[in-house]
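A common beginner's mistake is to predict each chain separately and then try to dock the pieces by hand. The better habit, illustrated here, is to supply every component at once so that their relative placement is modeled jointly.
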Amino acid sequence: MDRKVVIPGEIIIDGDEYLPGENTEKKEGKIYSLRYGLAEEQNNLIKVIPLSGVYSPRRGNIVIGKVENVTANGWLIDIGYADSAFLSLMEVPRFVNKDAMEEVLDIDDMVLAKIWSINKRGIDLSLKSRGLGKIEDGIIFEVNPNKVPRIIGKEGSMIKLIKDNTGCDVTVGQNGFVLIKGETISSELYAKRAVLFVAENSYVSGLTEAVDKWFKENKE
Amino acid sequence: MAEKFNRPDGRELTELRETKAKVGVVPNADGSAMFQQGKTIAIAAVYGPKKMHPQHQQDPRTGQLRCEYNMLSFSVSDRIRPGRNRRAMEISEITKWALEPVLMLDKYPGQVVDVHINIIQADAGTRCAGINAAAMALAHAGIPMKEMVSSISIGKLDKTMVVDLTKEEEDYHEGEGPTDIPISMTPSGKVTHMQLDGKIGVKQLQEAVDMAKVACQNILEIQKKALKDFIEGDKK
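With all components supplied together, the output reads:
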């Protein structure tokens, strides 16, 4: 089956050999879509990939969030989702003085973290991975979370292109926050313009070439 | 049978007005859509799912839907006073009831989906246009739904059943006068909303539901096309 755009309630495929995956349901041998997006098949498993809407957190996502509150045993982080996420003291790979937790992360600090579990009670974050932690410098801005895969590109090709052309370090959170770190502010702003160009033209086929051309036409 | 009934705008009895639909008309919203039926234009914007405020209205078992219907002051030829009024509050609630049965909000406990519907030009059938736009906007916002919802107003002018009334037809004053029946349906034929303003017999009411089924099928095709064009048009 080819990938196709489906709307809620649409029959994606008819046949008992198919299994309903994410965002689909099976009724009387037919697979129905439950969401608006792209339907695709993999080993008889049918799923619908959403292309619009708010960010939905998944386990393993790297996200950029803002510290909302400091509690007795951790931090509440706003990751751009209806429920705020919790970063436990146990998930910080360094010694934390419980009487001075603000020294590690204070309210309004930005933090790069990983989602390590999602359950009924909420989202739990972790800093136990390389590169995670409090964001000390650089600029942060927001893009549509549905465009994050295009900004990263196939196996990080787009990010690499931006890094090579601007000399800036670009980190994209799955929740749509982008962090740029560079030598000078003007190079950071240049990288920001490049990322926004990618987000605005995410539907163009041959996007990498288009971005290449953009870099030639728009110098820092 | 009496001679053929002539509609003021020359349409066939079961013919819809010229209908247009577009998705993604409000860039700031999580989902949005425009639905136009003749001179009636509705714009719907969806925000959420987001945390329910005020907190005491949160339901830990399921997410909730909030609808707000509003007619802009310039939408009719006599300026209407802007803001909420009795009619707008009723239609807001009706819209919520028409859409709620297809939404799967149990995945979003303690959260709310806000739907704002604005009528920028009114020529009868505004609640139907609003529901059609809202259903598209909800799909665009990525809310899980079992089915789409399509809505149409069926009318009885004197003794003749017609589809998609205009304001001129709503004010018809001959014979038995006008009857207006807005109906919302899912593609599988479930009725999620039905109102009746006027007089009608049981037999003709059944006829109205059957006519609505056909008309809603046509509207669904328009909604489907608009949603698909939004992604596929982008690729070109």
